[in-house]
Design brief:
single chain, mainly beta, four-stranded antiparallel β-sheet, 2 helices, about 0% helix, disordered C terminus
């Protein structure tokens, strides 16, 4: 699963995807900073997949996080980015100047994968090396660039304990906040960035912020991962036998361990740190992490989730507002092959390439207008156009911790590219 053909990504409050051949790019959800690439005059939330008009070449790679989006395009692997540029994460223009349309990143080509953290961008080149730009304050040792910001994309220097000293990188992923991980061709996993909760997978944890350079992740335990995913301050990996291990913050049971005390809410209260084997998940094939939760695809095609369920992102009926460290199968979801997580939402790709999603939907990141389903009193501290999950399990639902309200039952649209098919009422 380290290399995926279907290119979709759901982070923060939006989702972007291409078709199987990468012919066109569509995005939906929040557009406040230009992160949908629709132009300066189009900053309203989009509730249905909307083509990004400036992207006409085939998309080779796609990634998004925070409020910025980047794509690598055929045939050269050149990169275009758009959205928020507060820390130079677009690699173009003056930091602080947002880009509302896809803008070419100078000096960056031959990119095979992209990975975005909230304020930084990593590009994996076809030769197995990395380029980086954006906020660098937690990555100075790892990148070898002695500044807090990298406004112009740079090759990571191959000296000392920097990333480029690691040969033959084949995959890279980023967390929702400030850490990244990479896997090499020989199956070793390395992480860098902030290590406040032991999320880098080393023998010790650091403070906040903490720049500890490159960390080889639990040598002898985490080897040749089939897939890996990074959340807010936690990291998970699937081993070759399908077992799932997680490490870092456990405030909401996102490591698959009950968070009942200070020591269990932080999986590394004292050195040496070690990964936690998630029980109840076997033969996993893909994994995704949101801010404080995880979901995994199983060999059976089912999906299992655990951690924070504040917005119904675990897919557990009637359990919004709670946490659950015990992985549970999401009912009504079958034949899954890939999974992607937003901060509080999930997108699943099925074997037939149809898509199912659930969780927080208030900016349209699930591909529906939540205003149409506002049939119960919203929580006073949340947007008025957000309603609780329907009482029956639909293909798409919206979750909020509203146990006292009577939720709607509705026929919901499956979102897709130009389709208008209704889902069955379940």
């Amino acid at each position: 699963m380290l290399a995926r053909k279907f290119r979709s990504w759901s982070r923060a409050a939006r989702t972007c995807a291409t078709d199987m051949d990468g012919v066109f790019l569509s995005c939906w959800g929040s557009a406040s900073s230009g992160q949908l690439g629709l132009g300066a005059g189009n900053t309203a939330n989009m509730f249905t997949p909307t083509p990004v008009p400036a992207i006409t070449a085939h998309v080779r790679a796609l990634s998004l996080n925070g409020a910025h989006t980047c794509v690598a395009l055929e045939p050269t692997g050149a990169v275009r980015c758009f959205g928020l540029n507060s820390g130079g994460q677009l690699g173009v223009g003056t930091p602080g100047t947002n880009q509302y349309e896809p803008t070419s990143v100078p000096g960056v080509e031959n990119v095979q994968l992209l990975s975005l953290a909230e304020y930084s961008t990593i590009a994996l080149l076809v030769d197995g090396t990395l380029m980086a730009w954006g906020t660098n304050r937690w990555f100075v040792s790892a990148t070898g660039v002695g500044t807090n910001w990298i406004n112009t994309p740079q090759h990571v220097p191959s000296s000392g304990n920097s990333i480029d000293a690691i040969a033959n990188i084949v995959a890279v992923e980023s967390g929702t906040l400030d850490h990244h991980c990479a896997v090499t061709g020989d199956g070793k996993m390395y992480c860098f960035g902030t290590n406040s909760n032991g999320q880098l997978g080393g023998p010790t944890r650091g403070g906040w912020p903490e720049d500890v350079g490159i960390v080889e992740v639990f040598p002898g335990v985490i080897t040749s991962p089939k897939a890996f995913a990074l959340g807010n301050r936690h990291t998970c990996a699937i081993l070759q036998n399908g077992d799932v291990y997680c490490w870092g913050s456990n405030t909401h049971g996102q490591l698959g361990r009950a968070a009942t005390s200070t020591s269990t809410k932080d999986h590394c209260p004292t050195a040496p740190c070690s990964p936690w084997k998630v029980t109840g998940v076997a033969l996993a094939t893909d994994i995704a992490s949101g801010h404080f939760f995880c979901c995994a695809v199983l060999a059976s095609g089912e999906v299992s989730c655990w951690g924070d369920n504040f917005y119904g992102q675990l897919g557990v009926p009637g359990d919004q507002g709670h946490t659950n460290s015990n992985p549970q199968i999401v009912q009504g979801v079958a034949n899954a092959k890939e999974i992607h997580a937003g901060g509080y939402s999930i997108v699943v790709v099925h074997n037939d390439n149809s898509v199912t999603s659930w969780g927080l939907a208030y900016t349209g990141q699930l591909g529906i207008d939540p205003a149409g389903y506002d049939t119960c009193a919203p929580h006073p501290t949340y947007p008025t156009n957000t309603c609780c999950r329907p009482t029956k399990q639909p293909t798409i639902y919206i979750g909020l911790p509203l146990p006292m309200c009577t939720c709607c039952e509705a026929k919901l649209k499956r979102f897709g590219f130009g389709t208008d098919r209704d889902c069955e009422v379940r």
